[in-house]
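Table 4 source record.
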Amino acid sequence: MAAAYPLQAARELREAEVEEAKAALGAATQRLTEAAEARAREEAALAAHEAGTQAFFEQERAKGARSVDALLHAEAFTRRRREERETLRARLAAAQDAERVAAVALGEARDALATAQAEAEAVERHHGAWQAERRREAQRREDDDADDLAMARFAGRPGSGGR
């Protein structure tokens, strides 16, 4: 009967930790991708907003002299567009922060996977060494048994001094 590996529970635990770390890395990668996409959307929204504002001012310049009512309308539009721009900038900053946080989390997940893999590899190396020692012990026993058998046969021969 083969002896059971004494660290089998640790071996299985390390394997499970590697799988968990791989799953966490996948999730962290997905979160970073989503954060990058959100940042890109916010950048596009801000750029579109600024382009729209610029287009309005170019139209107003092209009109030339305007009434008081048109000037008041332009002033209200300008004020609203500034507020919208600040809101968009704040959303962009939040998206950039979320992307940075996701990038840090991805780095941590990579480190955790590397650590889990190194620990699992250490247990596997120990397991390999343990198996090699079991094979050496079995070979020694086999050699000892062969020597004992040879000695017994030799001892039973005439003139061997055994009888």
